[in-house]
């Protein structure tokens, strides 16, 4: 069954960085006027300025946030904290979303639907297959804040707002080169091995383009679920990713004796998202890391 997103009206991207820009461009193509709220709107890429109107907004100063336009029909909340501390996460993500929800409640007429970009970090150190029905088990102070952000989303749903959280794992793609750089720089020394980390840890990931597609899909869903896990089809021991990239880059194989059967950690289940995409006539552009990283490798080769 294919759904059609209503068009017209305005979409506001709160925290319009790389992912927010990708989402905003998709919504612009759907016919929405798009505002991109960020601390430095002049840093929006030149190529999107005809599609996304930059608006100055600092979530660290919620009292000074601009009002939502009265024709707002979609709000996407996707800021980055900027610092990996619980205090910063609370100030930007929790308190920032609280302020945005107050602005939504103040609008006359139908309330816009809300999508919050979250993280699978709320599942902490869970082992084995994990889906949206699994309990949240945050095991770091920042993940605790992310779980509290999801509580705000659940409360908004009880107050009549169509709201969802998209829990993303391991976003990669253009401009996100840490893993590639570590494999490119691998020289079999203990220091370079340490930079790669535990090869048997399960890696869950999604390409940035597919993360934007997932957001568009949820915004197009008439009755979206409270939470959707955003991952590709291939949770895998991170050492397998290292080895494959090393082969493509003609670098030393970091883990020649890797036994993937010993992999441990969370295997995030993206079945709900994959089903929703299919309902909307879509599928992931990059179902596994080989597909997604091939683009990055082509850029490295200059092809």
UniProtKB/TrEMBL annotation:
Pfam families, alphabetized: Epimerase (PF01370)
Signal peptide bounds: none
Domain of life: Bacteria
InterPro entries in alphabetical order: Epimerase_deHydtase, NAD(P)-bd_dom_sf, NAD(P)-dependent_oxidoreduct
Residues in coiled coil: none
Domain NAD-dependent epimerase/dehydratase: 15-223
Cited PANTHER family: NAD(P)-BINDING DOMAIN-CONTAINING PROTEIN-RELATED (PTHR48079:SF6), PROTEIN YEEZ (PTHR48079)
Protein name: NAD-dependent epimerase/dehydratase family protein
Lineage summary: Bacteria, Bacillati, Actinomycetota, Actinomycetes, Micrococcales
């Amino acid at each position: 069954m294919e759904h059609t997103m209503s068009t017209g009206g305005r979409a506001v991207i709160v925290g319009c960085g790389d992912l927010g820009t990708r989402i905003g461009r998709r919504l612009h193509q759907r016919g929405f006027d798009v505002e991109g709220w960020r601390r430095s709107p002049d840093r929006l890429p030149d190529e999107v300025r005809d599609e996304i109107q930059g608006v100055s907004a600092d979530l660290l100063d919620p009292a000074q946030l601009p009002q939502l336009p009265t024709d707002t029909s979609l709000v996407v909340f996707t800021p980055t904290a900027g610092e990996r501390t619980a205090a910063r996460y609370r100030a930007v993500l929790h308190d920032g979303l609280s302020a945005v929800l107050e602005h939504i409640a103040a609008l006359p007429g139908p309330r816009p639907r809300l999508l919050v970009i979250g993280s699978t970090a709320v599942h902490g150190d869970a082992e084995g297959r994990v889906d949206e029905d699994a309990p949240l088990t945050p095991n770091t102070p920042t993940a605790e804040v992310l779980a509290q952000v999801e509580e705000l989303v659940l409360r908004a749903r009880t107050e009549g707002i169509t709201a969802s959280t998209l829990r993303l794992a391991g976003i990669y793609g253009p401009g996100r080169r840490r893993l590639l750089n570590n494999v490119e720089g691998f020289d079999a020394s203990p220091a370079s091995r340490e930079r790669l980390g535990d090869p048997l840890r399960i890696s869950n990931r999604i390409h940035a383009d597919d993360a934007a597609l997932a957001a568009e899909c949820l915004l197009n869903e008439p009755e979206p679920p409270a939470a959707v896990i955003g991952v590709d089809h291939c949770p895998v021991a991170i050492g397998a990713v290292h080895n494959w990239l090393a082969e493509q880059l003609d670098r030393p194989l970091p883990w020649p004796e890797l036994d993937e059967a010993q992999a441990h950690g969370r295997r995030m289940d993206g079945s709900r998202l994959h089903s929703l995409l299919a309902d909307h006539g879509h599928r992931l552009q990059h179902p596994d890391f080989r597909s997604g990283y091939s683009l990055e490798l082509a850029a490295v080769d200059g092809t």
